[in-house]
Each structure stands twice: as structure tokens, then as C-alpha cells.
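Protein fold
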Amino acid sequence: MKLIDTHAHLFAEEFQDDLSAVVARAKEIGVEKVLLPNIDEESISRLNVCGLNYPGFFYPMMGLHPTSVKPHWQKQLEPIYRELNSGDYIAVGEIGVDLYWDTSLQEAQIGAFEEQLKWSIEKDLPVSIHFRNATEEVIKSIRRVGASSLRGVFHSFGGNSAELEEILELDNFLIGINGVVTFKNSGLSGILKHCPTDRVVLETDSPYLAPVPYRGKRNESSYLTYILAQLAEIWNQSIELVAQTTSCNAKKLFNFEDDD
């Protein structure tokens, strides 16, 4: 069984003391690739060190996270764009809009998001989208920039059925499912029951959103098995089939060669 964690921050400080053990546990349960989304200007070096130390396992992305966006976002994007052009990155991310904590920088976040969407078209790369409390705003931006020219994943989907339908109307976009699906109060089991299986990829968002039975603790890529088991139950499919389907979806989206 081969798995792909399409969104994990294993370069974060939470893993600085035991990253090798975290990687070993992930590989032990079948994780063959982990995609690392960048956060801001300061996280670039840590991100790249991880990629260099674990080639063929970690695949970095490059982008500016919406909660890191400042009023002078145009200046912020300059080093991010230079890095994107100088390195070998699997996607543009983590980008998007977050209106959960603060709405005062909504205009700046949308501006930075749309500029980075343009990069993805220029570089022919998928995007990893953060869209907390901002599904409508993000979809509007995608349509403004050009939905037919973009592709990517709505990371950490936790929305309702109407939001899922809106996302699925974007033919080139998938949803990322993480530990939230194991939370009883999330309601995701009913929402995902009729979601096409070819529109889903697995993720952990480590170190955040650890699945039950580790909820509230540090998350890691080896916990993909709990997300996988929950999806298998929701879709009434075998764990092996869900693993195969979601890994195939991830390989297609992120342009990995089929090495099965």
C-alpha cells in the first residue's frame, strides 16, 4: 500500500528534534511522498533543508500563506517569486484567503492570492489552497484569474454540501481530506458519502489537526492510516482501494510519474 501526504508542515519547529523518526514511521505504514507547503519568507530555508535531506520523499511547494500576508504584500511576494523561479517546486502553495481570524486584510489576501494563481499558470504548476471561511472569495478569484487554466487542491476541506458542490464545479480541482474527517462533530462523513472518489486526496496538515485517537496532539504523516480508514468506511470500500485511488489522484494532480 502506497500513500501520499499531499500537505504537511514537517519542516516546522515541532519536528526539529525527531524528524528522522517521524519520517521512518511514515515510511513504515506506506507513505512514499510528503508534499511540503511553504508559509512565508522566513520558512523557505527550513523547507529547502528538509527537501535536500530527504530527496524523493519530501517535495516542497512555494507560496505565501494568507495569514502571513501583510499590507505591503507585493514586496513580500518578490523573494517568494524569485525562489519559485530558482528552485524545483512541486506546486504553488500554500496560498489562499483566510477570513477566520481577521478580515481587515481581506483585500490584500485576495490580491496576493490572485497574483500567485497567475504564477501557477505561468509555471504550469498546481496550487494548494487555504480557504478558511473564504470559499466564496477563493472561487471568485479562481474564476477571475481563469478556472480553465488552473488546477489544484482545496486543502483541509471541512465545509458543507453546498460548498463541496461549488468546488466540484471547478473541473480541475480536488479536495484534501485530513484528520477532521475523524471528528464526530465535523459532519464530514455524511457530506463526503456521495463525493466522487476521483476528486479526493489525503493529507495530514501536520503538525495540526491530528485525527482521532490523537486529536489535540502533534500530528504526523504516519497518521494518514486513520484518515484512510475513515474514508474507506464512508465510501464502503476497502482500505487498499481508497489508498490506490487517492494516491492515483495525487500523482495525476502533482504530475508524479506512475511508479507502481
Remarks:
- The first strand starts at residue 3 and ends at 5.
